[in-house]
Structure to design on (168 residues):
């Protein structure tokens, strides 16, 4: 191989390595990645094992150990698929797929989460609800949510009953 060919191949390899590190840098945990976009760790349940993120577009996939469901305060049921996808930017998660909430008797997909000051607004498309940010300081656990000891001490504070009634 000629020295010029070797140099060109070396530069090509270096540029591919730089692009791969820039687009697929997963040195952060999924929870740290959420925090870097100004979201609390508790919007993702325990057990997230990884993620993919295209920083140029914000498109992401987060991976759990499997599907996950739990209740909060006995009245809010949430389901997470093993893969959650969407777009992320500072203070905004959009085009979400893989998270649903039971409202009355229907399961509705949570399609957007927006941080506004000390609140998070969750949208199911036709309705939205705001919750205080401090409700999401701790990650819920699959199966038992925030009350895994059965003593009620891990319950979410300041959560409002049936908030998914205001239209967007």
């Amino acid at each position: 191989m000629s020295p010029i060919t070797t140099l060109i191949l070396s530069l090509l390899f270096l540029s591919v390595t730089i692009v791969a590190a820039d687009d697929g840098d997963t040195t952060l945990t999924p929870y740290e990645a959420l925090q870097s976009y100004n979201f609390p760790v508790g919007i993702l349940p325990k057990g997230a094992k990884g993620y993919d993120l295209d920083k140029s577009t914000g498109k992401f996939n987060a991976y759990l150990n499997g599907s996950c469901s739990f209740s909060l305060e006995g009245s809010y049921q949430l389901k997470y698929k093993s893969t959650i996808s969407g777009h992320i930017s500072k203070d905004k998660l959009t085009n979400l797929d893989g998270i649903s909430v039971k409202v009355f008797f229907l399961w509705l997909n949570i399609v957007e989460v927006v941080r506004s000051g000390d609140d998070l607004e969750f949208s199911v498309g036709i309705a939205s609800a705001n919750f205080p940010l401090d409700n999401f300081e701790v990650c819920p656990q699959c199966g038992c949510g925030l009350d895994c000891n059965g003593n009620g001490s891990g319950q979410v504070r300041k959560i409002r009953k049936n908030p998914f009634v205001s239209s967007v």
